[in-house]
From TrEMBL:
<keyword id="KW-1133">Transmembrane helix</keyword>
<dbReference type="InterPro" id="IPR003439">
    <property type="entry name" value="ABC_transporter-like_ATP-bd"/>
</dbReference>
<dbReference type="Pfam" id="PF00005">
    <property type="entry name" value="ABC_tran"/>
</dbReference>
<dbReference type="InterPro" id="IPR027417">
    <property type="entry name" value="P-loop_NTPase"/>
</dbReference>
<dbReference type="InterPro" id="IPR003593">
    <property type="entry name" value="AAA+_ATPase"/>
</dbReference>
<keyword id="KW-0547">Nucleotide-binding</keyword>
<keyword id="KW-0472">Membrane</keyword>
<keyword id="KW-0813">Transport</keyword>
<keyword id="KW-0067">ATP-binding</keyword>
<dbReference type="GO" id="GO:0005524">
    <property type="term" value="F:ATP binding"/>
</dbReference>
<dbReference type="InterPro" id="IPR017871">
    <property type="entry name" value="ABC_transporter-like_CS"/>
</dbReference>
<protein>
    <submittedName>
        <fullName>ABC transporter-like protein</fullName>
    </submittedName>
</protein>
<dbReference type="InterPro" id="IPR050352">
    <property type="entry name" value="ABCG_transporters"/>
</dbReference>
<keyword id="KW-0812">Transmembrane</keyword>
<feature type="domain" description="ABC transporter">
    <location>
        <begin position="53"/>
        <end position="314"/>
    </location>
</feature>
<dbReference type="GO" id="GO:0016020">
    <property type="term" value="C:membrane"/>
</dbReference>
<dbReference type="GO" id="GO:0016887">
    <property type="term" value="F:ATP hydrolysis activity"/>
</dbReference>
Length: 426
């Protein structure tokens, strides 16, 4: 990727000086003023992908209660060699996700989808997680991850009496830096409302059981909105479509596609996506008992299962068909193991040189982040606390000082009951 193509004349070097950084910051702010209003949509995809998230041999196990008398029974994998009470939740999982794309984690309930998502989002103690997670080849420090990522949980608590616009504005006040003007925050909120497809519901209250408010699908998009107010580079979502009808679920994933195409990596777990949703997913990882049984694009599913010996029907939802096959194979442990092994050899045969499936970015992580900011990501100022040599990103969990949040909460009108839960990936 040519740095000269940047919209401003700044040369990055592996170790930028403070002067370089200040220059980048100034230009970034100028450029992002424009970008804040001009959030790309699907017709304006990212031109040069620069982020590649790789994870290799992720293995995670936990100690479980009293010794099982029947260690080989049940769905959970219990260490067979030692007959100890160790339960393997993730077993040697590898893969890649690239900017501009959605990677979906699929599998039956209990297969390890949320655990894998947590592992990638650094929500699992690094000492108990084996393997590596890197962005552009560099290990992700949690302080950096906090700044550049967001994690959207399944159930967000929202203030029922606030409108959609007020909710997002509250999030902007809460998460964007004090140094960003109110006008800029409002611009960001308006851009987000359009990006989330919430224009018609902007003035509608969130509501709850007693008060009619936004629909379930709109509510879910507001939940995503409060977490992506700072326009993160990495977005993790745990089942963003669960509980939604197929049209609302499709709209949510369409929004996620737009977010990915604005220069983010989107990784989510999902239960039984419809065919229309599968078409929006760039890469799928199917898990079974914490192991990968398929990793690739949905287009490869028929060929993969045909090669394994399961005739893949020509018609139907490929994700559903694959999940049905996996469920059937799960009933016979030896068959399930065969599928895991077959996936490894199939992956190797598809990629004999063991190269990344993606053209890996040549940019160092710091430079890639800077370039991304220059394109309008990480709403201006969020990384203001970055140190001069860019050796670490000394950014607190929230963009504003602690006292600001205390005051913001205390100053909130009494009639507005409920709670907004702001999360970071820590
Ligand atoms: N701390 C723990 N101790 C023991 N087992 C655990 C622990 N945390 C998770 N598990 C088990 O790990 C397995 C994977 O859990 P996970 O939440 O990742 O599943 P999932 O695929 O997300 O399921 P669902 O679709 O129901 O959300 C489950 O069997 C769960 O019970
Ligand atoms: Mg889950």
């Amino acid at each position: 990727m040519e740095l000269q193509k940047l919209p401003f004349q700044t040369q990055f070097s592996p170790s930028p000086s403070l002067k370089d950084f200040q220059k980048v910051e100034q230009n970034t702010q100028k450029y992002s003023e424009h970008q804040t209003l001009n959030i790309p949509n699907s017709s304006n995809p990212t031109v040069d992908p620069i982020f590649l998230l790789s994870f290799e041999n992720l293995t995670y196990s936990v100690k479980v209660g009293p010794k099982s008398r029947f260690p080989y029974c049940g769905n959970n994998i219990v260490s067979r060699e030692t007959n100890t009470n160790t339960k393997i939740l993730l077993n040697d999982i590898s893969g890649e996700a690239m900017e501009g794309e959605i990677m979906a984690i699929l599998g039956a309930s209990g297969s390890g989808k949320s655990t894998l998502l947590d592992a990638l989002a650094n929500r699992i103690d690094r000492n108990s997680l084996k393997g590596s997670v890197t962005l552009n080849g560099e290990a992700l420090e949690s302080s950096v991850l906090k700044v550049i990522s967001a994690y959207v949980m399944q159930d967000d608590l929202l203030f029922p009496m606030l409108t959609v616009e007020e909710t997002l504005m509250f999030s902007a006040d809460f998460r964007l830096p004090l140094s960003l003007s109110n006008a800029k925050k409002k611009e960001r909120v308006q851009a987000l409302i359009d990006q989330l497809g919430l224009r018609n519901a902007a003035k509608t209250i969130i509501g709850d059981e007693g008060r009619r408010g936004v629909s379930g699908g709109e509510r879910r998009r507001v939940s995503i909105g409060i977490d992506i107010i700072h326009d993160p580079i990495l977005l993790f979502l745990d089942e963003p479509t669960s509980g939604l009808d197929s049209t609302s679920a499709y709209k949510v994933v369409k929004v996620l596609q737009r977010i990915a195409q604005s220069g983010s990596i989107v990784i989510m777990s999902i239960h039984q996506p419809s065919s229309r949703i599968v078409d929006l997913l760039d890469r799928l990882i199917f898990l079974s008992h914490g192991q990968t049984v398929f990793n690739g694009s949905a287009d490869n599913l028929p060929c993969f299962f045909d090669d394994f010996g399961c005739a893949f029907p020509k018609k139907g939802n490929p994700a559903e068909i694959a999940l049905d096959f996996i469920r059937e194979l799960d009933d016979t442990p030896s068959e399930a193991r065969n599928l895991v092994e077959f996936n490894k050899s199939w992956q190797a045969s598809m990629n004999p040189d063991n190269d990344s499936n993606y053209k890996s970015s040549s940019l160092q992580l710091k430079d890639a982040i800077m370039r991304s900011i220059a394109r309008g990501k990480l709403v201006s100022g969020v990384i203001a606390a970055t140190d001069a040599n860019l050796t670490s990103f000394a950014v607190p969990a929230f963009a504003n000082p602690f006292w600001h949040h205390v005051l913001a909460n205390r100053g909130f009108p009494k009639r507005r009951t409920g709670a907004i839960r702001m999360k970071s990936t820590s």
